[in-house]
Amino acid sequence: MLLRVSAKSFLLGAVSAVALMSAAHAADMVQPVEASGFNWSGLYVGFGVGAGANVHKLGSDFVPISLNGIGGEGVYGELTVGYDYMVSPRFLLGGLLDAHVGNIETKLDAAGFNASIQETYGFDAGLRLGYLLTPNTLGYVLGGYSWQKYKLDTNAGFGFDWDQSGYFVGAGLETAINNNWTIKTEYRYTRFGTKGDLLNEAGLVGAPDGLLNLDTSRHTFQIAAAYRFGAQNGAPASFAAPAYNWTGFYAGGALGAGASVHQIEIPPLGGAKFNGLGGEGVLGELSVGYDHDFGNWVAGLMVDARYSGMTTELNIPGGSINLDTDYGFDVLGRVGMKMNESTLAYVLGGYSWQHFDLNASQPVPFLPAKWGSSGFSVGGGLETAVSSNVTLGIEYRYSQFAKKDFSDEFPIPSDLVTDTSSFHTVRIGAKYKFN
Hints:
Blueprint: H1 7-28, E1 42-59, E2 66-86, E3 91-102, E4 105-110, E5 113-134, E6 137-154, E7 160-176, E8 181-192, H2 198-201, E9 213-228, E10 248-266, E11 272-293, E12 297-316, E13 319-338, E14 343-360, E15 369-385, E16 390-401, E17 404-405, E18 418-433
């Protein structure tokens, strides 16, 4: 079966790659920063682009049924202002405020009726704690308050908007590319509080709170650039970056998280499309690969195997029906550019394979159903050396898999129901390079 790739789907996966290549090109046109002269304390402003997916869980206080969940995906842009302070030679504490605008969206198109739920704009305010892995590269965790505006649109003259607030947590890597500029790659998980009065906001006056509950979570990845005022006035560093040669074989492991979006199509219903069913969870991954250092550039190949807990769950009286994305593997190539003496920014792409498991906790006809699907992955990340053999990195991947015709698994006509699955995943990992 041929893999069908829309322009939008490609954009979702390539956004990190385009931004990374742009940042790398900019870094190539400036003088490299001196390891001993960068000042991480002070005010900064920045901008970034990102991609991600959300999952809406629908439930009720009155009916014992819930769906986790309804999924959407898209891209966004962000502006940031923040302040950092070095509390010791290697530890940093900072605050940040950012605003974002995007189109992470769920769509329904059925028999002439169109509807969409879109994240329009929002902001985050939080703190971050960082540790200098090298004089030029910071690893950090962050968290804080998040607020988001949502909008429901239809072509039937009906629509409304609402807002949700909650918290976010995340992690990232940031590295200096000249005397004032840095780039960073960052993952955030956002969880919003339960929205129990959504039906009232939709115009159903008098509907009791809890009749329809909405719980939303979001997984996003961004690459951003920041201008740091006074960063060129740093004092000599008390430690040095490790000497590292990128050429060689390596083995590694990673932990990550992400969301899946399943686009369901029912052609007999006027070509109905629902994008889509959503799932989320964590993953673990092992990898082996080889890189070659060409001077300012590094290129390599890698193979990895993963086990994922990303799950879509429908809870019904007496049990549940789950669509699990359990295990898979990738064969990928990557090309990167050195941002400084110890940190690599890279893009990657290649073949992916994923196993799916549709199962139920109680007897259901024709379940369980299991299948495998081929596809592709694209993405990028930052990786920094922390010793002469060990690197740490954070990486984003967008994966899309071939359309699944469920007539292969169930006694139904061909092309009655099909599913096209996509993933947004982030992993934080370590690699050991063999000399």
